[in-house]
Amino acid sequence: MVLMNPVISKLTGKLVVLASASPRRLEILTNVGLRFEVVPSWFKETLDKRLFKTPHEYAVETAKQKALEVAKRMPFKHLKTPDIVIGADTVVTVDGLILEKPVDKQDAYRMLSRLSGKEHSVFTGVAIILCHEKEDTFQLNAFIIDFYEETKVKFADLSDDLLWEYINSGEPMDKAGGYGIQALGGMLVEYVHGDFLNVVGFPLNQFCKKLGLIFSPPGSLTHNSTQNSPQGSPVDTVPPAEPAASSPPGSPTHNGPPDSQGQNIPSASTAHNVSTHVNNVREHETEDGKEKLSKMIELMDGFKASKVLFTASKLRVFDVLRSSKTGELQAEDVAQEIKASIMGTERLLEACVSLGLLQRTGKEYTNTAMSRHFLLSDGPLSLQGYIQHCNELVWPLFTHLETAVREGTNQHEKAFGKTSNLFQDAYYSRHEVKLRFMKAMHSIAKVSGRDVATAFDLSKYKTACDLGGCTGAMAYEFAKAHPGLSVTMFDLPEVIEMRGHFRPHDADDRVSFVAGDFFKDELPKADVYILARILHDWSDEKVHILLSKIAKACNPGCCVLVSEIFLDEDRKGPSRGLLQALSMTEGRQRSASEYSLLLKSHGFTAAQVKHTHNLLDAILCVTE
Ligand SMILES: Cc1cn([C@@H]2O[C@H](COP(=O)(O)OP(=O)(O)OP(=O)(O)O)[C@@H](O)[C@H]2O)c(=O)[nH]c1=O
Q1: Residue of the CA atom closest to atom 29 of ligand 1
Q2: What start and end residues bound the annotated signal peptide (predicted)?
């Protein structure tokens, strides 16, 4: 590729990391020839907006925290230190409000109807972190350059019918303000003043100018950066910290953004959209011991945090808060609603605040954006089914972990008094247990389904069969993502019987249901066989039986899409997969190459592997 911008070529040979899951940012930067890795940030976008004087300060601070989280995590978790980490955050502002990504369709409607007929601003805050690790330490020196860009956009007057048609297209859901100017959303726009790509998610022009300033000849920022900032201030030193997921705002190990109660005052950026400047993060002395201790404390307390999440979910705390008129309640009111003691409820709510699950202002508790996203029982991405499964099934199994390790067996019998293994066995014969299991699988499929369904280009295929597809949630995601695809969901008769509990809002007649046992019965004919969260449950022997049946059913050119948590090739992570393995019976967790080998022996060649950064990854293998 011809590099028109000489600055981009200056980055050759450097480990550049985009700390963003946004496919648009990836595309914009790839298009100009930048070589980089994508490591999506785990920083939760929960900064208290009220603490920022302007929307762009909020966007810049969020961008900075996203990038910092990745810069801190990489030396620890990826065992490599990036040279440059880029973070960004896009917000839409109208009527003094900051609009981020809608949590559901109603939210998208609220946003879009507010934007209708008006001019609004789109701000993207960007942080560029220049890092280098001090030799033989895990300390990271970091310089942060941040800036923002503003673009004005005017929407035409939009009828409700048009808005709903647009919302039902699914496009608004992962986009700030609930629209994508680069796609269908472009139809809503009357004019754009300013950088178009800034609206799409990344102000490329200003970014390249900033790089130009950073990588300009001697005397520039980077040349000074290992000693002093241009203002003569000390080098930023960022010790490695734990990921935001396990160290949410407000927790003891958290060292950056304000927590929900505003206890940590943010280092609110004074970023200006025309001048580059360097923010000084606190300088820390190396205190390796303290880092290790806080990691230990986090591990020791991990089970308490999980149980707080499970208990608050079981008591429906998040639903109760959502249902209140204003979305906020005091501890006494919550206690009354969940029929629990005031003191116990207050402690639970306070613990939830410390874990980033709730916010508290004065005495009023509200859900955080993360909880609204994943913890409302009727939300489109609700994890409540899986949380209930973890609480009722996985938790008891883990209380017997020591015996499981000593004996090398699954502890179902000890925990539940019955030998049980997967859906067919005695334990699962109870209706409510079956339903709970299906709800768990349903929520995983809902949350990961879109990423799995869009992981590969399947446009040349006409039919798919989702083997063991449980409630059909994944099958519907495939149908939604691929307009030319009909999907057959194949599962045990008792599963198919119960699918009535999970009827989708927008049923699609391209999805059909067939009852059968994939080990015993003939498989429906299809071009694509989907195995999502199936193979890990079975031994290699059983996997071979199933794959040979699929191979027989396949015509040349057909493919198998396996979706699982893929272990790293050295089996050192991700811990999510290795922790799950501890309560497994017959099955095992495997890496992408292990799956590819299993498939290869049945004539399927691994075509592509996709790490989705969601709950499940995916591999596509094609018949030779
Ligand atoms: C207005 C507008 C926004 N977007 C997307 O909205 C997301 C904003 O969210 P974010 O929080 O800044 O980023 P993210 O997607 O959550 O990714 P991450 O950086 O990992 O937080 C980004 O994707 C943008 O492209 C469009 O694609 N088109 C538009 O017209």
Answers
A1: 180
A2: none
